[in-house]
Write a structure and sequence with these properties.
Blueprint lengths: L1 E10 L7 H18 L6 E7 L2 E10 L5 E9 H4 L8 H9 L8 E3 L2 E8 L4 H14 L20 E8 L2 E2 L3 E2 L2 E4 L1 E3 L8 E3 L6 H7 L6 H18 L3 E2 L3 H8 L5 E7 L9 H11 L3 E4 L5 E10 L5 H26 L6 H5 L12 H18 L4 H13 L7 H5 L6 H9 L4 H9 L14 H20 L13 H15 L5 H11 L5 H25 L4 H7 L6 H17 L3 H14 L15 H22 L3 H8 L3 H10 L7 H19 L10
Parallel strand pairs: 7-10
Antiparallel strand pairs: 1-3, 1-7, 2-3, 4-6, 5-6, 7-8, 9-10, 11-12, 13-15, 14-16, 15-16
Helix pairs in contact: 8-9, 11-12, 11-16, 11-18, 12-15, 12-16, 14-15, 15-16, 16-17, 16-18, 16-19, 17-19, 17-21, 18-19, 22-25, 22-26, 23-24, 23-25, 23-26
Length: about 675
């Protein structure tokens, strides 16, 4: 008979952003542990609040599955003498495997020792298993308390361990397991008893704890939406803020507060940022997405004295918004361009000058990129102005206080200064994408300054020898390189990564040829890995990636080529062609040069292959110039039949050295043409 298992780890309040990872880790470790111990179960679930992390296992078997092992020994010729008696070899093998020699099994000409182990009772295994689960959890940061050497995310206060109704006894950090948990700090009467594992959620609910995080999510979201609707608006509920609030409360109650209309004159983000990022409030917008003088917060408690809670939150927000108003007013005593001069006081990186120097590099580098992608003169002019102003808001009072507003306040101040919508948008967009899944910059100037900023960061950091290794990436260069890759692909820019890096090195005054070569090598490897990741995320097979991706110098073209090649291979139309292309590639390795003498072709099959190659090469070159990779692949398939006829009827390694080398040269040229798309020898059919 199967029974439910409960493990609850009670602690002081755990940081909200730790909780999703802790719950996922506990579920993974528990599942692996039960499987390793041969304990059958139906489902493993993890639940959590700020003060408790719980594991629920449905229908955990009462008895461990038995196990049998079979060990191969010596052959029967060695194990037994001519009379069929066991030899010293058989006796020694049996003794080593702790079985009687008479119990050895003969099979396939060898002797085997077979041992079986009966399954133990689950209650015998659980004390050690649960103790190891608790002690085996890892956290971003640990604490020690008292005189203990034990480390945990927060001090342990209680443990509940029940197998149906039975308490599983074990001790961690002087805390002994039992059936007593703790209720809500303010709403409950204190400790409460859990009679059996299956009663856990209801027992928690009776103690004013909604222990299931998904149920808390639904409750919080529904309450916020209902309150916003009652005030003729809708709340801006971002997933990251919602998830954080979920793990800040055990019994949620949403409430609405107000602030003075005068703060609506501030830029919307200047109000929403302290509201959302500092106070964990949800802003309320009208049907036109204009900010309303309202906010919604979630209380860890019931609905009593909500007016006092509302008043307290309003006072806190009022102080925050007053600060924002003051910083905004101070900033507006100067134009955004006035702050560019102050960038001379901010160091960029050690030995690489100031942010002011970087701003001037961005203007030059973004204009260079603009010329390479055929941007118009007007677009380049906008780009250079945006690049000069892009970092100016970093020394504004508003951004110094609310760092999340970098780029946002630059955009707002640029608009107020009359810099124009294009410049303002580019200032905001040049930080994009800010994180995985974020949008790429949409305007031309925004793209150009974004590419320049990220490449300058990468090359400058590489020049100091700080190339990311392993999981270490303190300057977030991988994210920035991915941003460059995504932006180039999205914009379909034909541009060389090495050219941009080369220009960036010029602007950084890196003149040592060996150092420049090392930086280019590191940049090429770095971007190749990023493009591999992007292709893999788009379900392109590993062998196709390896076949197409020699390097990532021309990002958009390589990406498009890989995607088209993957589609063609998936359709199956290339199977015959690939086999022919691989034969060409294998034999062409013996070619000493690629010089073809048409007069040396004597057989019809080699003449036919040469003529087809010449025609196909011209069409493929045109298609590649037009980035029409499907047409290029389709045209190359015309070589399949002539190649097969050539190999069926022509002796490549002719006794005549000139004829042999000429045939190899033809194959070498064909192989070079084929590899302008992919090295099909790496494709797994």
């Amino acid at each position: 008979m199967a029974k439910d298992l409960l493990l609850e780890i009670g602690t002081e309040e755990v940081p909200a952003h730790f909780m999703p990872g802790i719950l996922a880790q506990l579920k993974e470790k528990a599942t692996a542990k039960f499987q390793e111990m041969r304990l059958d179960f139906d489902e493993v679930t993890t639940l959590g609040t700020p003060r408790r992390t719980a594991l629920l296992v449905k229908n955990l078997a009462e008895t461990q599955q038995g196990a049998s092992s079979e060990y191969k020994g010596p052959s029967t010729a060695i194990a037994f003498d001519k009379d069929g008696n066991p030899t010293k070899a058989a006796i020694g093998f049996a003794r080593g495997k702790k079985v009687d020699v008479a119990d050895l099994v003969v099979k396939d000409g060898y002797v085997y020792a077979v041992s079986s182990e009966e399954g133990k009772q689950t209650v015998e295994l659980l004390p050690i298993l649960l103790k190891e689960l608790v002690e085996g959890l890892n956290f971003p940061k640990n604490m020690r308390w008292g005189d203990l050497d034990f480390r945990f995310v927060r001090p342990l206060r209680w443990l509940v361990a029940l197998y149906d109704e039975e308490v599983i006894d074990f001790t961690v950090a002087n805390v002994k397991s039992g059936r007593v948990s703790r209720g809500h700090r303010f709403l409950s009467e204190g400790d409460f008893t859990i009679n059996k594992a299956s009663d856990y959620e209801q027992a928690c609910k009776d103690a004013f704890i909604i222990v299931d995080q998904e149920k808390r999510r639904d409750i919080i979201k529904a309450q916020i939406e209902e309150i916003a609707k009652a005030h003729n608006g809708h709340a801006e509920i971002t997933e990251d803020l919602l998830e954080e609030v979920i793990y800040l409360v055990e019994y949620p109650t949403a409430l609405c507060g107000t602030f003075e209309d005068k703060y609506l004159k501030l830029p919307k983000e200047a109000v929403m940022t302290p509201m959302r990022d500092h106070q964990r409030y949800f802003p309320v917008l009208d049907d036109n997405n204009n900010l309303l003088p309202l906010f919604i917060t979630v209380r860890n408690g019931g609905d009593y004295c909500l007016d006092k809670v509302q008043h307290g939150n309003e006072r806190v927000l009022r102080a925050r918004l007053a600060d924002a108003q003051f910083f905004f007013d101070e900033d507006r005593k100067h134009s955004l361009y006035d702050y560019v001069e102050k960038l001379k006081t901010v160091v960029f990186q050690e030995g690489l000058g100031t942010i002011y120097d970087k701003a001037n590099r961005l203007a030059e580098l973004s204009a260079f990129i603009g010329e390479k992608v055929n941007a118009t003169e007007a677009e380049i002019k906008t780009t250079k102005r945006a690049a000069i102003l892009a970092k100016a808001d970093l020394v504004s009072a508003m951004v110094c206080e609310f760092t999340e507003l970098q780029g946002i306040m630059g955009r707002e101040y640029a608009l107020l200064d009359g810099e124009g919508q294009e410049v303002a948008t580019a200032i905001y967009e040049h930080y994009m994408p800010r994180f995985a899944g974020d949008a790429e910059p949409a305007s031309v100037a925004g793209r150009l300054v974004s590419l320049a900023d990220k490449m300058d960061n990468i090359v400058a950091t590489f020049s100091r020898g700080l190339v990311p290794t392993g999981s270490q990436d303190p300057f977030a260069l991988r994210r920035q390189a991915l941003g460059i890759v995504h932006t180039i692909i999205e914009a379909n820019y034909t541009i060389s990564i090495s050219e941009i890096a080369d220009k960036a090195m010029d602007l950084l005054n890196i003149t040592d040829s060996e150092k420049r070569a090392e930086i280019q090598k590191n940049v090429a490897e770095f971007f190749t890995l990023r493009l591999k990741n992007v292709l893999g995320d788009n379900d392109v097979r590993y062998d196709i990636i390896d076949a197409v991706l020699e390097n990532a110098d021309e990002v958009a073209g390589t990406y498009a080529k890989a995607c088209v090649t993957a589609q063609e291979i998936a359709s199956g139309v290339l199977n015959d062609a690939i086999q022919a292309f691989v034969r060409v590639g294998n034999i062409s390795k013996k070619a000493e040069n690629n010089v073809i003498n048409e007069a040396l072709f004597t057989l019809d099959e080699e003449k036919a292959l040469y003529n087809t190659y010449v025609a196909v090469a011209k069409d493929v070159e045109t298609a590649l110039n037009n980035k029409d990779y499907k047409t290029a692949i389709d045209k190359m398939q015309e070589l399949t039949v002539p190649i097969n006829n050539f190999f069926d009827n022509v002796m490549v390694m002719d006794k005549d050295e000139q004829i042999k080398n000429n045939r190899l040269a033809l194959l070498k040229n064909i192989d070079t043409l084929i590899k302008s798309i992919a090295d099909f020898g790496k494709i797994v059919l």
